[in-house]
Fold these 4 entries.
Entry 1:
Amino acid sequence: MRIGVITFPGSLDDRDAQRAVRLAGGEPVALWHGSHDLEGVDALILPGGFSYGDYLRCGAIASLSPIMTEVVSAANAGMPVLGICNGFQMLTEAGLLEGGLIRNDHGSFICRDQVLSVENASTAWTAEFEAGQQITIPLKNGEGGFIASDKTLDRLEGEGRVVFRYVDVNPNGSLRDIAGISNERGNVVGLMPHPEHAVEPGFGPDTPAAMRSGVDGLGFFTSVVRQALVEA
């Protein structure tokens, strides 16, 4: 499976996402924000970072990049798309996901290993998990507070589109402890924590077994790769 990872000016985690794809058995394809060519990929990842310096609003300028025209079309046609942190912000700005992300309620940048509850294990990116499962992956953001109207929040809850929820602590003031959501179809998922930083022993979060041994993030990438194999 060929998975495109889009680099924007200011992207920081694009190479990490490419490595995660490779470890999951997929073929990472580097894509550039200024292109209109998705190069025949089967899925897309919008990585974390500070696209365009986070001017205006995080992800706002990136959402208008040339390649986003193709991303929106591909997503609407059913292609799996994952937005991580700044990529999640881009997806909301582009209208592919509802709600928005604002400054953390405590006003500070936060970096921690975060426990999440998997609320929806039926999306393209979560099929390797089980509903109710708790996973730990790194979180690092300054504007990660998820907001939406009460009506929208109720609809997201009612339709099972809250994909991840923060456990033990709400690190940024996200309403209803929401850490990630999906679109109606389930092919587009956005979340603030970084699964690409928990895919390889020795480089992930600490676990009871050993320091830096956590690989819970790998399930995101194996989910979409194995789904493609099944469909093939």
Entry 2:
Amino acid sequence: MSNTPYRTALVTGASSGIGAAIVRRLSESGIEVHALARDAKRLETLASETGCIPHAVSVSDQAGLEALIAGLEVDVLINNAGQSRTGNITKTTPEDIDALVDVNLRAVLQLTRLVVPGMIERDRGHIVNISSIAGHYAFTGGNTVYHATKAGVHSLSQQLRCDLFGRHIRVTEVSPARVETEVFGRLIGDMAEAKKRFFDEYESLLPEDIANSVAFAVLAPQRMNVSFMEVLPTMQVVGGLNFAKKTSDPA
């Protein structure tokens, strides 16, 4: 059992990858974890393994989210659900933009809006936003809309600390680099190929690494707020400059 004052947690995108790992880790700490995702079958398996309470609801289902929160006292909200796409802005469809904004940013805003009043009333709570290094750095090959939504999550995390100043409500942003999850398989339509292309020859993070990072922040003493955590593989760096050769004399 944990000494944390938190009793309940809600984890989105909980059926696999980082979300499922967070559910396992927080359940081990003695917190009652509510696991939210679309895949009911995977949630049932996770529930039998961890004792979590499954909720087969899409983060895009506003009515479903409101119904869930109305009957639930959330001490810890883990905004983890996310989607990505390949290609830059010139290869992005209107449907891609809507899906990424809806899941990566709109759902985070809506869930936060729904749970914060209860946290304020109890003067107890913790919001953890899983963002990405894509929200802080520009790099060739990244999806423009994905980068923009994750930058929005970063800005939300910063502003929330101002909104909640003077209360015992913490806000943490965890910003991972490459993590070995099914997301890469969905991006290219073949998990075996994704494993070969992105992971076999590289040292990447595992979902458990991010779950342990989240647990460190959530289980830290109440006097301490881990406001921002950037988590990278040891063998990866971010940043750098690119220069294109001249193609003609400047006008």
Entry 3:
Amino acid sequence: MTIKDTPEAWEIRATDTPFVGNKTSVRTDDVVMPDGTVVGRDYQVHPGSVAVLALDESDRVLVLRQYRHPVRHKLWEIPAGLLDVPGENPLHAAQRELYEEAHVKAEDWRVLTDVYTTPGGCDEAVRIFLARDLSEAEGERFAVEEEEADMELDRVPVEELVRGVLAGELHNNCLVVGVLSLVAARGGDGLDALRPAQAPWPARPFEA
């Protein structure tokens, strides 16, 4: 038996969007259940995101520490950001985020993994890239504002991040999934066997 997620869409009898924000909205769908009953389901509509696990020549991961108001924590994270335009190439978005948040560029890009962050209440899909062969980006640094003005930047060994994840000290979804996927890939067919950076992404289709 092959374990694989499959697309499926149950019938929607009615839909409403009671809240629309700058980047996301909240939608209510009346969904027909298998027994024929109709149940309301509220969820956040999200444009999708990309994240970058940037790995340097010393086996350290580039991480950021940023305040996240909904959880009232400063979290260690990997560079990440929204897909600003529908159909945007996720690789281009990831390269932009790595430049803007860390002023770093990478020569080798692979798809590390694709995830739905909170499928019970949000349709956000995230593509996490592995970026290697890092160097300082050229040009002026991106001007930061709001929470990013307080952001810290560091490079942390992979084994220290794994320890922090398993100890319950690191909680950011993309960091946790990215770091553990990196370790799993190394223990499997190796990093060079990962999907190419332009691999199809059915959750957020794009033009290569």
Entry 4:
Amino acid sequence: MSWDWQVFCQDTMDKEVVQGCFGKGGDITYLDWMLSAWGWTVSVSLSALVLALVLGSVIGTLRTLQGRPMVVRLGNAWVELFRNIPLLVQIFLWYHVVPTMFPAMQAVPGFVLVVLALGLFTSARIAEQVRSGIQALPRGQRYAGLAMGFTTFQTYRYVLLPMAFRIIIPPLTSETMNIFKNSSVAFAVSVAELTMFAMQAQEETSRGIEVYLAVTACYIVSAFAINRIMAFIEKRARVPGLIVAGGSGGH
């Protein structure tokens, strides 16, 4: 069986090969379509990542507050809720159930609903990492901040969180790569990302091997880029000589 990579140069309508592989004058080739789908994948992933980082940082921090058992319980409930419901189920809930319960949500684009589902799902995982990072710090760092006259907010802002985030960069790298892979479930609610492109393009062209290899390459390039960016951040943020004593920063 021979491979035909010219499939990506074909016009999506008349299947004629287009010179240069990029459509002109309103024509769209399969290469154009794949790059557009890759853009949607990146957009969904980065938007969900920003949401997950913000919410995960807040929830993870709240779970380490001393003397606030109710706040800690609420943070724990958030993590258990969003971590233990499968992502695909959450996407269907946001896409089909929530707009039914709240009619105002019916005007919200599917892209936004997918970002919410993916961001909330990932926020629970990041919250657990933030909590672990804070609790891994020596107890003396919290007390040192309070002894300097810092408020609890300032102690977290200037002492605990900067060190905790340095500790959790490796698991955050994995979570960032996972969010790109998890974005593939967006095809279930008709977001035109890479997985949907692959399914439709291979059906139209009968060139599944070429299509899926190209899509796989896009995911690999995305994951590798994330890995290198996070490795650079980790190298720049590393504190020389830092030795973390386990299990006391949050209590």
